[in-house]
């Protein structure tokens, strides 16, 4: 029983944290206060659920306890000094005092009697700024969580702060956990989060979903953060493990949540597809001795076919694009990689959609030899035309090496090597090393592996490079 | 509502090198901006060139050191400002994006107790 309750609380932490905090933030009108109340609610759950059993809807229970605590603190009124009217949505109804009993108070007239606390400021004369929280069941959730995500990922915040805030407020990770994942001191991470929260309140970053016109710009920032979270988990920048599974899982969770909240958005579909198709290969990336296995040598029986199927299903939607759809990025959309990539590139296709399509081509190949490199090369061409970057060029060169041969790819790589953006990028040297090895220039290849080794801080990757230099070691 | 100062930072060298018609066009654009956002604007001003600037620093002993020149040596200096009122940062940014600043850009900062 004890374990079951502990597990239920842990499960609720992963699944419901964003729900609960988002709903509480609206009532608390203060992110710090909301966090305190939510933490408190989880602590109470550990005790309470042992006596009463796990409620049928843990998220609702936690939300009610946390919001009630926030209201209680507001009644003591001294919170008003924090003066954060921006978190409050004045548009809708009342605060139900009896929500704990499961009462569903849907969108009725404002119930002034049930509302606790006093106006937190802003609208003189209104006096009901604390209102606005309606317990209207599950339907109220998506908007709240979207608000929270968009607030954490506001472009006025530094990107590293966006990542940290999202992990903290949307995923419920502690500063210590986030600091560990990104290999900075806890005090540093704590300061970063505090600064970001201060900017939210002092600059007046609103707690709301952006208007339609702002959405493309704002959703891009959100998806970048989710992608960063996943990428940081997929290959750890440092340390003894190749991956940080807890971060990869959080990234996947976030992508799934975004998909649920914005089911119509092609780029959201693209990002989720990309992460699913990448994660599917995860079990084959290291062998039983913990050593890195290149995709070329991976045991594809270990690839997670369920994740691949789920990802593949999303790809056509991602490639259909937002701006009226597009038929020019063909091939993978139909399942079997057959068609070519149209000359113009997809009009409405997003970056993550194209990257997902690349991952789909790999996912569909039963054997390494079956990989449709022509298709992948075409997709990288599309990617480069729309989102040129040296890293895209590097990936394109890898694809080219399987279409036109390693010698041709090496020639293009020489040009890219002058790009200062890649000066310390380990994968430039390791790609060069692989191409040299494949052309039989083994002495030069060894030197390039040495160079790559100098830029790698991940010990699993370093081991792999070391074995390439001295195969018998 | 909160008050935000929108500071226009320009590269003065670029202005010095610019054709007079660029200056004239900029004036027209500012008038258009004011006309479009009059409801939110609480104040505005254009500053004279940075060569006219005088800086004052505390000398740490209750006195002041007055020096010729701008406070911080950067290529881009503040050339003008708008004081605007907005519901939140997003609204302030939407207005600030319309401020003509062809030789640089703008910085938006909330005023403390700006409501």
TrEMBL record, chain A:
Keywords: Sigma factor, Transcription, Transcription regulation. Residues 150-200 form the RNA polymerase sigma factor 70 region 4 type domain. Coiled coil: none annotated. GO terms for biological process: DNA-templated transcription initiation. Signal peptide: none annotated. The keyword Methyltransferase does not apply. GO terms for molecular function: DNA binding; sigma factor activity. Residues 20-78 form the RNA polymerase sigma-70 region domain. Belongs to the sigma-70 factor family. ECF subfamily. This is RNA polymerase sigma-70 factor (ECF subfamily).
TrEMBL record, chain B:
Residues 3-111 form the YCII-related domain. It holds the Pfam family YCII. Belongs to the YciI family. This is YCII-related domain-containing protein. It comes from Kribbella solani.
């Amino acid at each position: 029983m004890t374990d079951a309750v502990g597990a239920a609380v842990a499960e609720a932490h992963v699944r419901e944290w964003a729900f609960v905090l988002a709903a509480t933030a609206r009532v608390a009108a203060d992110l710090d206060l909301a966090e305190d109340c939510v933490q408190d609610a989880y602590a109470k759950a550990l005790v309470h659920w042992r006596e009463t059993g796990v409620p049928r809807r843990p998220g609702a229970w936690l939300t009610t306890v946390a919001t009630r605590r926030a209201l209680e603190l507001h009644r003591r009124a001294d919170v008003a000094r924090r003066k954060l009217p921006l978190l409050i949505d004045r548009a809708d109804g009342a605060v139900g005092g009896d929500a704990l009993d499961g009462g569903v108070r849907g969108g009725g007239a404002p119930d002034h009697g049930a509302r606790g606390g006093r106006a937190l400021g802003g609208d003189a004369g209104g006096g009901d700024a604390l209102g606005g929280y309606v317990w209207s069941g599950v339907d109220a959730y998506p908007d709240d969580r979207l608000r929270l995500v968009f607030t954490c990922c506001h472009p006025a915040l530094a990107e590293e702060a966006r990542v940290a805030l999202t992990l903290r407020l949307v995923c419920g990770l502690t500063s210590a956990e986030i600091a560990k994942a990104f290999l900075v001191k806890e005090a540093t991470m704590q300061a970063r989060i505090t600064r970001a929260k201060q900017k939210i309140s002092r600059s007046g970053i609103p707690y709301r979903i952006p208007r339609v016109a702002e959405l493309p710009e704002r959703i891009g920032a959100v998806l970048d953060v989710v992608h960063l979270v996943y990428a940081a988990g997929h290959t750890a920048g440092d340390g003894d493990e190749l991956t940080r599974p807890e971060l990869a899982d959080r990234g996947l969770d976030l992508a799934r949540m975004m998909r649920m909240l914005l089911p119509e958005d092609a780029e959201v579909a693209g990002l989720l597809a990309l992460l699913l198709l990448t994660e599917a290969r995860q079990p084959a990336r290291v062998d039983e001795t913990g050593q890195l296995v290149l995709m070329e040598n991976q045991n594809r029986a270990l690839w997670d076919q369920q994740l691949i199927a789920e990802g593949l299903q999303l790809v056509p939607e991602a490639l259909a694009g937002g701006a009226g759809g597009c038929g020019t990025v063909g091939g993978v959309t139909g399942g079997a990689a057959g068609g070519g990539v149209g000359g113009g590139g997809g009009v409405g296709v997003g970056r993550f959609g194209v990257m997902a399509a690349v991952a789909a081509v790999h996912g569909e190949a039963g054997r390494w030899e079956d990989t449709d490199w022509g298709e992948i090369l075409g997709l990288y061409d599309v990617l480069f035309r729309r989102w040129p970057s040296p890293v895209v060029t590097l990936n394109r060169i890898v694809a080219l090496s399987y279409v036109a041969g390693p010698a041709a790819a090496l020639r293009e790589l020489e040009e890219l090597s002058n790009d200062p953006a890649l000066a310390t990028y380990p994968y430039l040297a390791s790609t060069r090393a692989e191409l040299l090895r494949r052309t039989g220039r083994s002495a030069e290849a060894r030197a390039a592996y040495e160079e790559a080794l100098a830029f790698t801080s991940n010990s699993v990757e370093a081991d792999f490079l070391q074995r390439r230099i001295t195969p018998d070691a | 509502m909160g008050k935000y100062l929108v500071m226009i930072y320009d590269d003065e060298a670029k202005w010095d090198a610019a054709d007079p018609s660029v200056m004239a066009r900029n004036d027209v654009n500012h008038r258009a901006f004011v006309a479009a956002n009059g409801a939110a604007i609480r104040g505005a001003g254009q500053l004279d060139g940075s060569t006219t600037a005088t800086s004052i620093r505390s000398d740490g002993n209750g006195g002041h050191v007055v020096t010729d020149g701008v406070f911080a040596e950067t290529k881009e200096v503040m050339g003008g400002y708008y004081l605007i009122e907005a519901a939140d940062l997003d609204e302030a940014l939407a207005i600030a994006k319309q401020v003509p600043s062809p030789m640089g850009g703008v910085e938006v900062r909330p005023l403390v107790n700006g409501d």
